[in-house]
Specification:
Layout (H helix, E strand, L loop, with lengths): L1 H19 L5 H8 L8 H21 L20 H17 L3 H7 L5 H25 L1
């Protein structure tokens, strides 16, 4: 129960941060990504702050022998850059640039009632399902 409550509070804090910083506002995000037009650099400060907080937290966390709410850390074992990482990054960036949304802000924005956000979420989930089916077919 403690893990669920902690996950809920972290998700709530993350969602509030996305709303306050306007990362859930597609027009604001597209303004940030439009470096050749009316560029709005304000989200660079949001991202820099997020990276700084993460870097500090990550360093402090890894000094511990175990996480607070689990038996061991679940760190990724794969560290190389491969075709799947590059193609996934390109698709993510393309979708972010076209729609002004990525998964976290889209889920937060879904509560605003905009049908375009729901269309984005359906497209995102469909793409995830397609990738999963392709991977299952190519693995076995």
């Amino acid at each position: 129960m403690r893990q669920v409550a902690t996950a809920f509070v972290c998700g709530l804090l993350f969602g509030i941060g996305l709303i306050v910083s306007q990362m859930s506002n597609p027009a604001k995000v597209i303004g940030f990504l439009d470096i050749t037009g009316q560029w709005d650099p304000s989200l660079a400060f949001v991202m820099a702050g997020a990276v700084a907080v993460f870097a500090l937290g990550y360093r402090l966390t890894l000094r511990r022998s175990a996480p607070l709410l689990d038996k061991s850390f679940a760190l990724p074992g794969k560290t190389n850059v491969d075709k799947a990482l590059i193609s996934g990054s390109l698709l993510f960036g393309l979708g972010w640039g076209l729609a002004g949304l990525c998964p976290g802000p889209a889920i937060v924005s879904s509560s605003f009632g905009d049908p375009r956000i729901w269309m984005f979420i359906v497209a995102m989930l469909s793409g995830m399902a397609i990738v999963r089916m392709i991977r299952q077919r190519t693995r076995g």
